[in-house]
Amino acid sequence: MSPNNPIFNVNNNLTILFNPWKTDSTWEFVVSCIAIAMLAVLHEILKFFQLKISEMCRCLDTHKCENKVENGCRRGNTNCLRCPWHWVQTVIHIVQVFLNFTLMMVFMTMNAWLCFSVLIGLGFGYLFFGWKPTSPRRQ
User: Fold this and answer.
1) At what angle do helices 84-107 and 26-56 cross, to 10 degrees?
2) How far is CA 46 from each of CA 36, 49, 50, 58, rounded to the nearest angstrom?
3) Using the 8-state DSSP alphabet, how is residue 72 labeled?
4) In terms of Cα–Cα distance, which of 10, 33, 14 is closest to 24?
């Protein structure tokens, strides 16, 4: 099969992402599929934490309490670079983008089992971390 042929395959002897990550046996391939699914779950966990941190950090909230300091951030502060939570969000964002591209490259191997592992990992990650419950209505 030519490397440019866009057809899904089910081979279990392949190189995943880089040369040292080769699967020569079925056991290595199954472990690799589980590792890839865990990377996809980690991607959803990072999205969850990024949402939680954005709810916690109120650096850009200019509509309430202009001078109140909460969670290390001064509300109404237009310079969010001083907010420590913004820096944490930035690091999470960088890791999340790296995981996005890594999962995309795994999917581009066109191996049906690896693609299935990515989808299953993203699905389980969303199932456990991706939903956002509605807040109770204030009366």
Assistant:
1) 150
2) 15, 5, 6, 19
3) T
4) 14
Give the list of residues 6+ apart from residue 71 with CB closer than 8 angstroms, or none: 56, 57, 58, 85
pLDDT tens-digit readout, 9-57: 888 888 898 889 899 999 999 999 999 999 999 999 999 988 888 777 7
* Total-model pTM: 0.75
Left, alpha or beta for 131 (phi > 0: left; psi -120 to 50: alpha)?
A: beta
Burial class (CB in 10 A: 0-12, 13-18, 19+), 118: buried
Query: In sequence order, what are the residues at sequence separation of 6 or more whose Cβ sits closer than 8 angstroms to the Cβ of residue 73?
Result: 57, 58, 59, 80, 82, 83, 84, 85, 86
